[in-house]
Write the structure tokens for this entry.
Amino acid sequence: RDLLWKVEASLLLRNGAFLVRLRNRRGMDKGLEFLNPFTINIKLVNGRLEFKQQLANGQTFPRNGMWTEEEMIYIREDSVIDDVGDLTSSSSVAIGNASLQHYLTMFASKFFESGAMPITMVALPSATHPAERERVEGFFKKAMQGIKNAFRVLAISGEVKISTLTPELKTLVIDQLDEHTIKNIAWAFDIPKSVLTADETGYSNGQRISYKSYITDTIIPRCKFYESKLNSYLGEYGLKLEFATEELSIMQEEEASRATALKSLVDSGVPLEAAMDILGYDLSEKAQKLLQSKLTTSPT
């Protein structure tokens, strides 16, 4: 589990994950070691990839030469554009919108930190006495220091014109920008927006449907992706990686619903195989043989 989440994080951050195959002096495999993706340099030499790790302290690994394709498990998103380099990662797509979220929050924070007072220009008549001018300046300086000072009253003689330089918060379309950035971040990571912003205390049926879609359309294909990438390595040792996604609670609920629907179809006279095909059952070769055997020996 520790290895898998690091690989996924690497793909989201750099769109490349690197697992070096550790071997002892006799050439026997000792397992896999995850490498920081931002320390790895890739070269294409005579049609083959070679890898080198460059650490911040100047150290390089391996000490001599480069890691070959046989020594490194290099996992990246498939692309028709480039077979070697790193493509645009999900985080690099989302970072601009995340930065906008950050600055929106910072602006609102600074606004209220300054007493929720916008930048204001006070225009006084040219003939205003210097003492009167100082009184006005002093009042507004104190008013800008905190909201508790914002409601004091100052009486002066002469005409005073006050102009607000900072636009009101409601005119800055903050809500629209917030919605826009969240939508783009969700798109970058292939997460339904309703799942990204879901409130567990008020989990609606629509959000539940979105979450189910997220599992079936994003998570399960991602698991298949890792199975295809890692099983070529594990197959050398007679091992196989398989994700039990059907055991997820939300998938179990779906299976229970499908089982009820299957029984209803069969009870209404629909042949079992046809009913299973209608409901989208994807049987393994072994399961199909067992089903055929069951149907053949069944008196009905």
In short: The longest strand covers residues 17-23.
